[in-house]
Design goal:
Chain lengths: 314, 436
């Protein structure tokens, strides 16, 4: 177990190093630099700024500096946001994105498992049909459209009620989390319920399920101990990629619902070629995703005792 | 690999279901109503974007200034009015006894009312005649006349004049502006000659789906946008799956350290943050003035999306390589190229087709997503995603402008997904067990 985790973490570190290196050189290969703005700059000012940010050094020297700073946990100062430290940007705005993401994953997980189980239990009857139609709709409609429509519905609802039942956008109160989180989690929920349905169908026709029934296990105990625990595994397998999808999809939802999460700074930084912010957010997200995947791998062992983690390959 | 710790760890790394996939594949029985319907849908969408523009000849970039964000309209004739900017009633005209309408068309509504003693400033309200209430306070004036040029359309308005200081309502009247177009715009659109200002009426084309926030025909834009979306959606997967297959096949056939090296490389490409690198590549390849940004988009997708199919094909090739029939052919002296073409290709082709059909909706989604955040195609080229991007800005007042392109994205994604599902079911030997 420990050696498995150690190996996964090691490969994770190599992956992060690769992401950081690739991003660094791809970013510097893009024509222009963060000091290229609409306003023309006198050569003297430019030289001074370049010296301040270390852009006057050779590329490999910059790379070496960046790497050594990164190992010390320092991502430097933003180019475009007036002396703001990248670490501060991340520590201030990531918790917001994370809260939204966790809420979305929870909604997707609970909703997907519930809908998938119901569909499998009622195979080919109307609840199944209903779930499958909803799943197809949720998979086919892009997230930004769902976000827009959700706002439209909220506005119509508020107008009909004559007061603000739910805020349309913004961040800060609990009531402002649920709609964006639902929108963000909807596509994933649909995807998970599809997987859950297929795997639950498999479990329902499995010998051990029939044996458990024959033994007299019934009701919640049968569902909870014999069916759900077996059927939920493929869903857990998908959780890693799912969390990645939700963090990516989060950018648009944050944009539409005016949520001050990290995604906005990330997109903005790429557009303005803000080197330090790009590197900081990319490495941070990369590390986050690697960690999530490792955690998901470990969680298999907790759910399914048959899995021997040391057999897994890094 | 996350998959390899899963319950049924395959013997060969990455080569899932080796035996089953190699067995002869039954001919697809895809004739069920849903599949036929989605096939028809795909054909409709393709015709819509290819033949469509030659049937519906409006230009997707032509702006009708007089028809900003209008609803569906038919071809009709409109009056041409000369637009002189500021207006005041002529001195000779007597002060009207009530609220007098000098002119009412969609370019301007001109109102005049009697000067009332003791009132210094008037406030003009404009509201929808079918709804209660005064509507919008559109102006405050010390004069006893007003010209309304604030985005008028051919519906019934109620104008109300009130005392600005006390709020006392003075006069009210319902007005229905006549469809009109300014001389300037008619000349701009080439509907009337520049020198001839005598034309009174002019025929203008209708917009079956209305116009967008810049007065452009939505139907024509949907056709033009669909062209981009479907082009990217089909060409990008075609390229990256071809590349991925070649890469994976070489890795699988060579084996040994080449294979190991190739697969480590694949692992790293998979680890790259997709969105960031899409945007970086798109910026790096550069979009010069006058370019549409489609090529950078496709290249970026090619660079980032090929590993999936490379893994798939490598696994298949590895599994096939050790199959008795392949070994038998090799012993019989069949050339390597013939083994690949005659024995391996037919076995992996269905998988490639399935991967391709699932890659199409994903590529359409990716393009839509990037265009939506403004990192996709660049104007005047448009796509369904770019149309959604424009549409969401006017969401609350004109939801149609978002919903229409969204419907097209959803329909195409849905149709391709269903086709992919059917294709997978038809080629997947296990499908009899669980899949409903």
């Amino acid at each position: 177990m420990l050696s498995f985790i150690a190996r996964r973490l090691l490969s994770g570190v190599i992956t992060i190093w690769f992401i950081a290196t690739a991003t660094f050189f791809a970013m510097h290969a893009v024509p222009g630099d963060p000091l290229t703005q609409e306003k023309a700059m006198s050569p003297a000012v430019r030289a001074q700024l370049e010296a301040r940010y270390g852009l006057d050094k050779p590329l490999f020297e910059q790379y070496r500096l960046f790497m050594s700073n990164m190992l010390h946990g320092d991502f430097g100062i933003s180019f475009t946001q007036e002396n703001r430290r990248v670490n501060d940007i991340i520590s201030k705005h990531f918790p917001i994105s994370a809260t939204l993401g966790i809420a979305a994953v929870l909604i997707a997980l609970v909703g997907g498992v519930a809908a998938g189980s119901v569909a499998a239990y009622c195979r080919n009857r109307w609840p199944d049909r209903l779930v499958m139609v909803a799943v197809i709709a949720a998979i086919s409609v892009p997230g930004f459209v769902i976000a827009g429509l959700a706002q439209l519905v909220i506005v119509a609802m508020n107008n009909a009620a004559g007061k603000t039942l739910l805020p349309v956008a913004g961040w800060g109160s609990v009531s402002q989390i649920w709609v964006p989180a639902l929108v963000l989690g909807l596509g994933t929920m649909a995807y998970l319920s599809r997987i859950m349905r297929a795997s639950m169908l498999e479990v329902l026709s499995a010998d051990y399920n029939i044996a458990a029934k024959a033994k007299g296990v019934h009701g919640w105990r049968l569902f909870w101990h014999h069916q759900l625990r077996n059927a939920v595994l493929p869903v857990v397998t998908e959780l890693g990629p799912t969390i990645a999808a939700i963090t990516t999809g989060g950018f648009v939802v944050e944009l539409i619902f005016a949520i001050p999460g990290l995604g906005r700074y990330f997109v903005q930084a790429v557009q303005q070629l803000d080197y330090t912010v790009i590197m900081g957010t990319t490495v941070f997200y990369g590390a986050f995703l690697v960690l999530v995947v490792v955690l998901v791998d470990i969680s298999y062992g907790l759910i399914d005792p048959r899995i021997r983690l040391h057999r897994g390959r890094a | 690999m996350a998959i390899s710790v899963f319950r049924f760890a395959p013997k060969t790394w990455g080569a899932a279901d080796d035996l089953e996939a190699v067995a002869p594949i039954p001919l697809p029985s895809m004739a069920n109503p849903t599949v036929i319907l989605s096939g028809l849908m795909v054909i409709f969408l393709l015709l819509f974007v290819t033949v469509g523009p030659s049937l519906w000849r409006q230009s997707p970039s032509q702006q009708w200034l007089s028809q900003i964000s209008e609803g569906a309209s038919r071809a009709r004739s409109v009056r041409i009015v000369s637009d002189n900017g500021a207006w005041r009633p002529s001195k000779k005209a007597d002060a009207p006894s009530g609220l007098k309408v000098h002119a009412a068309n969609t370019e301007y509504v001109r109102l005049q009312w009697p000067k009332l003693a003791g009132i210094e400033r008037y406030r003009v309200y404009r509201g929808d005649a079918n709804k209660p209430g005064l509507g919008l306070a559109i102006s405050e004036t010390a004069d006893s006349y007003y010209q309304d040029r604030l985005q008028l359309s051919s519906e019934v308005y109620r104008y109300t004049i009130a005392d600005a200081d006390t709020g006392l309502l003075l006069l009210s009247r319902e007005v229905r502006p006549e469809a009109a177009m300014s001389v300037f715009e008619a000349q701009l659109q080439g509907l009337i000659p520049v020198t001839n200002n005598k034309t009174q009426w002019v025929e203008i084309p209708g917009h079956p789906l209305g116009t967008d926030a810049l007065g452009r025909d939505i139907l024509a834009r949907l056709m033009a946008g669909g062209r981009t979306s479907l082009f990217v959606g089909v060409v990008a997967p075609l390229l990256f799956i071809t590349f991925g297959c070649i890469f994976g096949a070489i890795a699988g056939l060579m084996g040994g350290w080449v294979d190991q090296l190739a697969m480590r490389f694949v692992d790293f490409v998979v680890a790259l943050p997709f969105l960031l690198f899409m945007i970086l590549f798109r910026v790096a390849f550069g979009i010069g003035p006058g370019e549409n940004g489609i090529m950078p988009l496709i290249v970026a997708m090619l660079v980032l999306s090929w590993p999936g199919s490379a893994r798939l094909i490598r696994g298949q090739v590895l599994a096939l390589r050790s199959q008795p029939f392949v070994e038998a052919s090799r012993i019989a002296g069949v050339s390597t190229s013939r083994i690949i073409l005659r024995h391996m290709l037919p076995n992996v082709l269905p998988m490639i087709l399935v991967a391709f059909s699932f890659a199409i909706p994903q590529a359409i989604f990716t393009e839509a997503f990037l265009s939506f955040i403004g990192m996709g195609v660049s104007p005047p080229t448009t796509s369904w995603g770019a149309l959604c991007n424009e549409g969401i800005k006017t969401l609350l007042s004109h939801p149609r402008q978002l919903i229409l392109p969204a419907i097209f994205i959803s329909l195409s994604v849905l149709a391709f997904n269903i086709l992919g599902d059917a294709l997978r079911d038809a080629t997947d030997r296990r499908s009899g067990v669980v899949r409903a």
